[in-house]
Specification:
mainly alpha, Glycosyltransferase, three-stranded antiparallel β-sheet, two-stranded antiparallel ribbon, 47% helix, 6% strand, globular, glycosidase, 6-hairpin_glycosidase_sf
């Protein structure tokens, strides 16, 4: 999805239709191979087909409103708008299932609802926690004006603003999984908090800006990528 979106941005920046044509081809492949037509949500991969129980598994970090809007704009396929609306609705339902407002890495989704997975579903024992996938959600929703997106983002930021130190991962009940900070978690929060500068969450914004003040790590690729994406958005 990020590759397709990058091609769209390249077409806009350099006014080259070659990029747009490649983006449309990729987007159409995603629609054909990575969408559950029963739930109107993205699947976790083209390997999670209708014969697999994972056909109903949702990776919450795949909720990318800006990218889905762009897919519609270049293809005029209104199914992308339905997917966008449905995925945001399921994310809001997940947010409301915990007092913390936190959202898990993975959830089981149906045509009418959604529920956080328990234990290891596909990736790790943290699949049902706010962990290495869900940490991207604040970044994915940053700058999105949709009512559901803002609701989800504000609940997440409200939780993090109450923590003395934002650490790497939490249970749905808000219990820290680790006692150390991680820029993979802090960078998306910093970007989301920047939407509310001089309104609310300024303390959270200030506490997380360390991600841009330190040198990029040459060891942790994931941290480095999320910090770089944050810097580019800023």
């Amino acid at each position: 999805m990020f590759i397709a979106y990058s091609l769209i941005l390249a077409a806009r920046r350099w006014h080259d239709e070659t990029y747009r044509h490649q983006a449309v081809k990729l987007i159409n492949d995603i629609m054909a191979k990575k969408v559950n037509n029963e739930t109107n949500c993205l699947t976790v991969g083209n390997w999670a087909d209708q014969d697999s129980k994972y056909y109903y598994l949702l990776r919450t970090s795949d909720c990318l409103p800006k990218e889905l809007t762009a897919f519609y704009q270049v293809t005029k396929d209104e199914r992308w708008l339905l997917i966008r609306k449905t995925m945001l609705k399921r994310m809001r339902q997940l947010s409301n299932q915990s007092k913390s407002g936190l959202i898990p890495d993975f959830a089981w989704v149906s045509s009418t609802g959604v529920k956080a997975v328990k234990g290891k579903a596909v990736n790790s024992k943290y699949d049902g926690d706010y962990a290495a996938n869900a940490c991207r959600i604040p970044m994915n929703l940053a700058g999105v004006k949709d009512r559901d997106a803002k609701y989800i983002s504000r609940r997440l930021l409200k939780f993090f603003s109450k923590q003395n130190t934002v650490t790497a991962g939490y249970t749905m009940a808000g219990k820290a999984l680790n006692d150390y900070q991680s820029r993979a978690f802090s960078a998306p929060i910093f970007l989301a908090a920047s939407d509310y500068r001089n309104q609310v969450f300024d303390s959270l914004f200030s506490s997380q800006k360390y991600v841009l003040l330190q040198k990029l790590t040459g060891i942790n690729y994931y941290d480095a990528v999320l910090v770089t994406l944050t810097a580019l958005e800023k």
